[in-house]
Request: fold
Amino acid sequence: MDFKPFKMAQYSARLSARLGLPLQNLHSSNPQPWTWDELSTLTNTDLAAWLTQAPLHYEAVQGHPQLRAMLCQHLYPSLSANDVVLTAGAQEGIFLVMQALLKPGDEVITFSPGFEPLAQVAADAGAQVKILPLVADQGWHIDWPALEQALSDAPRLLVINFPHNPTGAQLSEGDLRRLVNLCEQRGCWLLADEVFRGLEHAGTARLSNAAELYDRAISMGVVSKALALPGVRLGWLAAQSQSLRDQLLVVKSHVSICQSSLDAHLCQAIVPHMATLWRRKVAIIEQNKALLNQRLQEHPKFHWQAPQAAATAFIQYRGDDLERLLQKWAADWGWLVLPNAVFLTDEAGFRLTLGAPDMGPIYQQMFTP
Reply:
């Protein structure tokens, strides 16, 4: 395999190295991580004592059975523990799916802007990746005629990500089921990156998960994003297909072998409290969203399609000097945001976090005309 570096990592590393200083990350897709004290309070658990009870042995390749059962109980009620494979984060999940499903020459369809690994890891596996632009002035929604035309070529895999990174767009339930029907008609696999599920803003409905709707769908989740625990390297893939799950485990045995027993034990204390953790982070996100909307209304060069879910926004830029502006912010203020190129789109703009507290002064400085 020919592994290519991700543009996101390259951009951050090169800018920091060129300036010779650490930069403040203002683009994080995960809300600000919880502290141990916050987690202990919200879960009503002495997590320090809880962790001392964790086994320090290898876990099963498929992952801790009790945790898999808990995930089904809270996220996939019509599935069973056997339908879930635990992973060492979402990045491993993406790798497992692409290696298990794809062979050189297979066609994969995904969208831009988007999370680069959803396209690049498929290309690394030898697939031909077709990237369809989302329609910016329609709230970053799908260009249905373009998608139906692309699906007429009978691709191997369609990759979707809603709630969406980086724009915060959300599908309707009807649109999700339309996607599932299109895939079903063509025998196409569907990978649904659902890592921001749970961070829906007020008035935005939570989508069904794809894995329960279609027997060739894979739902991907992780604790690093909606649950704001990026230091806990645990994710999962849910799928009805036994043959796919078998192949995922073959690939996994060549990579991480199993997830951390410590992470699995900790997550058993956290998963029952998912809804509480989501609500606390959405409150911060919505506060930042209101502040940012006010600032953008007062600035002639910046605008957005207001996000409906997740913890980031994609800020569109009307000028012709975006790269110079972002580098000036980095040099003068130590701010790091990621430009449109790392999200595989020509739509000028950048990703900005909504998930950190006390963002008001930064938004004011950033978007003062």
Q: What stands out?
A: The longest helix spans residues 274-297. The mean pLDDT is 96.
